[in-house]
Amino acid sequence: MTRERWQQIEALYNSARESGPGVLAGVAPDLRREVERLLEQDSDGKILDRPAGEIFESSTVTQFVVGLQLGPYRIEAPLGAGGMGDVFRARDTRLDRAVAVKICREQFSDRFHREARAISSLNHPNICNLYDVGPGYLVMELVEGETLLARLKRGKLSIEQTIRYSSQIAAALAAAHAKGIVHRDLKPANIMLAKSGVKILDFGLAKSSRDESLTTSHMVVGTPAYMAPEQREGKECDARTDIYAFGLVLREMATGDREASTATLPVHLAHVIERCLDPDPEQRWQAASDVAKELEWSSATPAKVSRTSRPSPKAAIVIGWVMAGLICVAVFIFLIARPLPAPRVSGYARITNDGAGKGGVFGAAVTDGSRIYFAEESASESVIAQVSTAGGETALLPVPFTGPEVLDISPSRSELLVASTYTGGAFRWPLWVVPVPAGTPRRVGNVLTTGAAWSPDGREIAYITGQDLYRANTDGSGARKLTTLPRTAFWLRWSPDGSRLRMTLGNVIDRTGELAIWEVSADGTGLHALRPNRPATECCGNWTPDGKYFVFQAARNGRTDIWATRERGGLLGLVRKPATEPVQLTAGQLNSLTPIPSPDGKKLYVIGQQLRGELVRYDSKSRQWAPYLSGISADNFDFSPDGQWISYISFPEGDLWRSRIDGSERLQLTVHPLRALSPYWSPDNQRILFQGGTGGLFDGIYLTSAEGGMPEELLKGHNRLRPNWSPDGNSIVFSYALWVETVPRAIEILNLRTRRIGPVPGSEGLLLAAWSPDGRYLTARRADHRALMLFDFKTQTWTELAKGPLNWANWSRDGRHVYFERGGTEHTLMRVRLNDHEVEQVVSLKDIKRTGASGGYWFGLTPDDSPLILRDTGTQEVYALNWQEPIP
After folding, report:
1. What is the pLDDT of residues 693-732, one digit of tens each?
2. Do residues 845 and 829 touch, judged by C-beta distance below 8 A?
């Protein structure tokens, strides 16, 4: 029920109380029935003595709520009340299924939206699923069963039940913590015991690393009886806070009392509980996944020993030798064939402290053992930086070219392979050798590449050009093609034994979309995906120096962590086994990227990343950048033709939102797992067109109502870029991503009436098209960034509008200018006049570091043509971790 509807009811109700029910005679029947029902319930006349916005949240009107319709959901019965709102059983009238609807109290709307974000990012069998989000309510999975609180009122659980349920709770917490989400209110009342197992509920107090704090400093939130010491003191909460609460719940399940002694419990179970409840967070279990593993050990029961008659002395000796031999054989077989324990990392130590973007766009970080080398974003330009592995200030490594991306380091640790990304063509960048710590850089022949690697003996290099993989001498001579890859690729690595090459296939530009690690023999045979049925986007791997492990980064459910897969197993590596399922090494509040094993095999260096941006607008009068819309972390803004509305993409979540131009009346239009890019308003201000997809892919063109609802997928596949409207609303123009090799790289137009697609004449090799406000022109960028082109529909010809290097371009509101960003040694925002092609500088971007859903390439224009950009306020630092390899 909408607020307006309640206001109508409130006014009629007050009139009926003052003048009698006769005033309802001329009221619409459905509205009259609702008021009369409320009058019957409210004999003391107090229900509506509060603001209309609070009525729906009152438990005194529960009977009145039953039978009401919230969108497609019909309320059937109350289920319970919580601190933030009430929960009702409801019926999804579209799918005819029972659901749970949680209705928020208005004063908790911020926490309510945070709960929606927290639950939507989680997908785990032991966490209650979120189905839908509406204005002021959540629609969730209806869990049939009883709360753990209700079960404990009948007494403690058996040890078997305790371990089974607690293992599921720990697994759910591990999944939440891996997403950077801390529950902060774990207790028996928030745990359901269903036939399918445990379900954790109520993330209303959950804290995510993606959210700014919604509580003031030192504010205590949670349930006091289950709070960790640091939580009671109002200190920062992390995963270990949940682990403390989990320890209390576990002790209560096992003993029936959360304060009872554990002396009567099995030793291993008591140890798990006591370590969970250590007052010092540093001494507790550091990860819920570790607790889950320990509980698996607790599930084992000791075998019973029976007495038998004694054998004779001689027989005992024989039996002893036989048993000893059998034990030796069994131990030998076990040591060779058994799966090794998983490797681990520990002891995060920060190496850098400048917060600047590291690793470049598609490049790597490498180490010679004493220093780490990587591309670093300096405002809008990238440079090569170096830092001591012991930590300290970064220093620049000068090179005679622009846009450097570090690709690999030589086996002698004295030279880097570096690509120059601002010269050459699309996916064909010159390759350089840069001596370290100092020396004169030199070109590697005429090699053009997106990925290159040294052979372990240092005599050859392998490199990727387009979709072709080559081997050559270190000076670029003697090149020979090994194989053709299914897609463009980057991050090439040669195995320590020289037998194999691995690379990441997918979007070279900014590591978005579908990424997968592929392998091929060093002679070019046996090309295959390393993990064909991988559940995540995986890339950017390195072998450990001994070749036993392969570490890489993988994105799952919106965050990125480091994983490892074992290459060899068994005693001393004598038995060669295929790569096993990977194990997760990192988890926490930061994304972890680009794992770099140290040459001595004792350290693993990673880039820790926290994504955040601030929207800023350039004021030409003051010549200053200032926060716009309170500095929201969002980009890809588009303003409706009538100037009243805006659409944008939240960063880093990737959700599509719309609001009034002042930021009011915000409405989320897409939810996870659908992510969005490049939204554009329809000419009639009613619909929004956008590029979107799931699983890291932006491979569809979608259309959604500005009032919300299920987006319609117009076109699927091929990564069609920047779809935008013709001014008459009858057509959509789009282009194709550079990494799509199976379609013509041309600009195409979709006729919405006939649904036919046709190319724009002469548009081969162009992309990122944008329609002029009057519909006569298109602008597009050359694939090599070298020119901004203009197409005239009247003359059917293309002309060069401005020279690059450049990337994004936008039309001014009146169509007289085209704004674009010029790259090179200094990024600047420029504009070119349409009638005479005169180019002028608008503002320098030299000292601004940018980020966003489009990798920092986006800029927008307000209705008065003031530039908008998303300034990077996140952090990226290099961390050193201790690499702990299991003993074979």
Report:
1. 876 567 789 999 999 888 999 988 777 889 999 999 999 9
2. yes
Q: CATH number of the domain that 141 lies in?
A: 1.10.510.10
pLDDT band of 425, cuts 50, 70, 90: low
Rounded Cα distance, 522 and 503, in Å: 12
Query: What is residue 614's predicted lDDT score, i.e. its pLDDT?
Result: 93
Question: Pick the catalytic residue: 49, 96, 110, 185?
Answer: 185
Quick one: 634 and 598 in the same domain? no
Two structure tokens written together for 720: 């069609």
Q: Report d(CA 374, CA 396) in Å as an integer.
A: 10
Window from 32-36, 498-502, 815-819, 858-862 with minimum mean pLDDT: 32-36
185 is catalytic: yes
DSSP-derived secondary structure for 94-132: TTTEEEEEEEE-GGGHHHHHHHHHHHHT---TTBPPEEE
Name the β-bridge partners of 689. Answer: 680, 703
Instruction: Give the closest residue to 829 by CA, choosing from 633, 618, 649, 629.
Output: 618
| Identity of residue 506 | G
Note the pTM of the prediction, 2 decimals. Answer: 0.56
Q: Which of 367-376, 520-529, 716-725 has the lowest mean pLDDT?
A: 716-725
- Are 507 and 623 in a shared domain? no
What's the confidence (pLDDT) of residue 244?
94
Domain identity same for 759 and 686: yes
573 with 628, same domain: the answer is no
Tell me how far apart the alpha carbons of residues 121 and 129 are, in angstroms, rounded to a whole number.
10
> How many structural domains are present in the chain?
3
Per DSSP, the three-state class of 638 is strand
Listed residue (30, 32, 50, 51) closest to 40, CA to CA: 32
Q: Are residues 751 and 764 in the same domain?
A: yes
Statement to judge: residues 782 and 676 lie in one domain: yes
Q: Which residues pair with 781 in a beta bridge?
A: 767, 788
Q: Can you give the pLDDT at residue 823?
A: 81
> What does the block give as tokens for 445?
């022949």
Query: CATH no. for residue 446?
Result: 2.120.10.30
Look-up of token digits 């994504």 = 611
The number of helix segments (H) and strand segments (E) in the chain equals: 12, 61
> Do the beta carbons of residue 738 and residue 767 sit within 8 Å?
yes
H or E, element range at 9: helix 3-19
Q: Which of 51-55, 299-303, 484-488, 600-604 has the highest mean pLDDT?
A: 600-604
Structural domain for 696, as ranges:
613-872
Same domain, yes or no, for 426 and 448? yes
DSSP letter, residue 369? S
Higher pLDDT, 104 or 314: 104
Question: How crowded is residue 457: how many other Cβ atoms within 10 Å of its Cβ?
Answer: 9
